[in-house]
Protein 1
Amino acid sequence: MFNIEEELKKLPAKPGVYLMHNQKDDIIYVGKAVSLKNRVRQYFQASRNVTPKIARMIEQIAYFEYIITDSELEALVLECNLIKEYRPKYNTMLTDDKGYPYIKATVNEEYPRLLVAREMKKDKAKYFGPYTSGEAVKDTIDLMRKIYYIRTCNRKLPKDIGKERPCLNYHIKQCKAPCQGYISKEAYQESFRQVLEFLNGNYTQVLSMLEEKMLEASEAFAFEEAAEYRDLWNSVKKIAQKQKITSQETEDRDVIAVAKAGEEAVAQVFFIRGGKLIGREHFHFNEVLGESRGEIITAFVKQFYSGTPYIPKELFLQENLVEEDLILSWLSEKRGHKVYVRVPKKGEKERLVELAEKNASLVLQQDSEKIKREEARTLGAVKEIAALLGMPFLSRIESYDISNTNGFESVGSMVVFEKGKPKKNDYRKFKIKSIKGPDDYGSMREILMRRFTHGLRELSEEPEEKSSFACFPDLIMMDGGKGQVNVAVEVLSELHLNIPVCGMVKDDHHRTRGLYFENQELPMEASSEGFRLVTRIQDETHRFAIEYHRSLRGKAQVHSILDEIEGIGPARRRALIKHFKSLEALKEATMEEIAAAPSMNSRAAEKVYSFFHQ
């Protein structure tokens, strides 16, 4: 048993990271400290003034653990990594998890290439970006290949020159085949130098070149060729227009500002490379009530730059960072060169930060209604269901269904919704093992027994890595009424588990009607968000079971349902199918009609008849 008072006495006065857990073993908060002893104890001091969010977090702490580090900087790095891995509920979290592509120019090769890269490595290549759109990266690389005939192959040149035939790009005039020696190394490298000029923002040269070639082709009446140059010229012009000059300086910098309203906040980032705005992105935060803009910006900087491969020389911020010196040391170490943070107070730089703030405010305003609708659809709907069932708390819902064709290939599905949203990583499929024939109640009993026995075993044995079975639901929903609910209640009773169970009842048109709970049907307003969530859960459970069943049937198309009947071999199966023409006709036949079929006798006929009518 974890005794918080006793464990607080054991805390070392050393730097490190602490992790707060709730009763379900979830990590709900990750923090760092110069002195673990002083920092962690503060959470449990009655006199300490904390934000409402941290107060809620403290109420849920069941136990804590900690990791000692050699320095505060190491603690910061570890904190960032753990927050990214576990995404704790009470840390100020980015709700967006975006990665940005780069264009990689392999200038270290004798015949360089352009590649898409997701991270920057110290490999002597040259990187351009980040770009906020993967499509923009692809379009830019395609454009460079068409204009400058840059190779796309992975051949090692000049070592592999002449070893294989030229690829299709050579024949469609999008490569000059350096793999065959058709272009000299010097000429190829000159073309690539112009590519680098383009990627650095010098578009004048390529626009002039394309315009000249377009006019030459037009004067020679080569109108198709002229049209190709015209299209390339338009593509370059389109890219050039997106690059808005923001400064006469040529430094790389990110401009970051935050807009905040209630519990919501948005961080806006402008990516400026070589004095040009190459893109912008916004990121949402939830549950920031009581936190200052400086704290939100600090959380953003720590999370964003722990995941992005490129760190610019300068950050223009709206507010000073909390623990600025420590964070700057970390950023500088990651970049390999010193990083500077500025909080501009006047001039063009201040206007840039103001522009970022205005953009953040606009996004927050536009998205606030969307966020409210989504919350009503998910968390609001969950609260409605909890109130209807008289439950004080509801988050995780598990729903179950059975699918089969006359008992053949019976399967079960387990679908999980958390906070009103599907959690597809926790979905599970079950192939029924112990039940033969069409017995939905027996099949349901089997899958529930397997699911919760597995979960109880994991909880008692505590393996290194637990599956989703170790996380029990707050509510079980059965795709059916009283019968299915009773099966679930019996299984839970046998396993000594106390989990509420309700059935999702359908009307005569097979549409959701309400919930069956504690021996009574609870009607729901069809226009309510709770009703819509129940419908989504029911449809998703049914879909998941049907898809699994279809996949199994697809793998066993030649397997007839008649194979499931003991004593009916291949010869009798063929005779029955030939005689009755369809499975439906066989199911409707009397025992005497089955016995009269070729190769059949009264004993075999009785087995067939019993299989379909038991």
Protein 2
Amino acid sequence: MQFKSQNRLSFDIIVVGAGHAGIEAALACARMGCSTLLLTISFDTIAQMSCNPAIGGLAKGQLVREIDALGGEMAKATDFSGIQFRILNTGKGPAVQSPRAQCDKKEYHLYMRKVLENQPGLTVIEEMVNEVLTEGNRVIGVKGNKTYLGKAIILTTGTFMRGLIHIGEDKIVGGRINEPSAENISDSLKSLGLELGRLKTGTPPRLDTDSIDYSILRKQAGDEIPKPFSFSTAKILQRQIPCYITHTNKKTHEIIRTNLNRAPLYTGQIKAIGPRYCPSIEDKIVRFAEREQHQIFLEPEGRGVPEVYCNGISTSIPRDIQKEFVHSIKGLEKAKFIRYGYAIEYDVVLPYQIGPSLETKKIEGLFLAGQINGTSGYEEAAAQGIMAGINAVRKIRKETPFVLARSDAYIGVLIDDLVTLGPTEPYRMFTSRAEYRLLLRSDNADRRLMPHCWKLGLLNKTHKDKLDRKEKIIQEAKAILGKSFYNGKSLKKILQQPQVRLDDLVKNSPAFQRLLLDPVGLDNSIKEQIEIEVKYEGYIKRQLEEIERAKRMENYRLPPNIDYEIITHLSKEARTQLNKFKPISLGQASRIAGVSLSDISVLMIYFGKGSQARL
């Protein structure tokens, strides 16, 4: 089937790839009023959850809430298809708490496919792209079986650029198991002058749920009252499904250790760099040789389906060894394999070649989003996708790029890290990467980013009015806390005590009772934000002061085309790195590896003295 007619061959924007990045990019473009073409190798793999069918997690949950606040679809799809919802790190402070949901991967795919089918202004066609077409240094379209013309192109190729799958000694050309690889697009990008790298990721075996002995394993249930991901979802109604936990053991480790001579990761067969923070089981056993066990989460891939995802034992060792080590694990002694684990190597565009808008520096109108930029994870991909879509629209409208600062959102941290650090391994988001994580919580993403969404034309008036009312209630409640007293002590001071909850104060305050009559009311999410902002007021104030200091560096703009070799007082490494990354501001320059504080001082003196490149 085809979503829409293929007769039209010219569009405002063309998005290549219908994974998590491509979907958010295409929807953003169409919703902002641009005629948009989304090209996918197969309709059946739209929004494919090729690894773990889960959304969110530590820091990733913040990204999903931010995508939702910008008008994206990932959170809504998760609420629709989720089979287990949990808030992680509830025993720690609000800065590091994150939502996570296990999803039914088939329902997730069908939801996203339906959204794409029904989106006005969006055409979806099955086509493999082989070439990016340019005139001079500007894109004009892409070529597959047909030629499609566009004013801007967004590439979201995932692991499909020269993908190579490894299972033991076997090497299989493919973007995912049983799916073709895009073999020509890499050569096209190289011919345009872009430098490519090669990365590796992997996935664990899938087992038949009926062959697992859950009776001897520890059950992990979801939250009793699940919290939705999307700010537009009122309540999660569907029944939740438990996961289970087991562990590797000494016998498991010995089986793997004995067969490392057949593991592609250690024979030299795999040459690309894999994710440091999500290593394969063979890598864990070598790197953490002192550990006697590693935790495994057995996570269902959907309702009424047999597949169980074995989170924690990603591997590319041979099939016979996979069987042997899996059968040594408690509860999995008789497990039947539905699919073996594998590793995959794929091409990426080294991200120092993109700017904060995700447009390539060499090729005007060419945007990159997702794993092509060296990231890992659905959430990181989707976050880049929506930003690339927004900026592609703004590009063809000749508007300034929409760029989020590190103090605005985790999305800002993600993109800034890509364009200043140029990761050499698959990049994964963590709360520790965000300097201002107390301000960038998952609970307040709507208040941080929906005002931007409104200005971009991606938020309807109903949601805008609801947000405005919510903000007014929060400010009114905080004012009440500051002005009301109990036994001579302000309610604000009382609430700052760790053991006191806002509910304890609301029931005894007439002023709060009036707020309860408001149509928006003091719901749990509003009360949660009021509590956090009052209890952590001192810390929040300090972070806001730090942001103001950092803004001075970010506002100190650097010329885009200067040759840093002429600034002889810079260190040699700084000149090389600054010419490579071409930072847009002094703040961005300060985060580039190899640029020292003394180099920053040199830049400030140089540009402050009135050279021809003066700001």
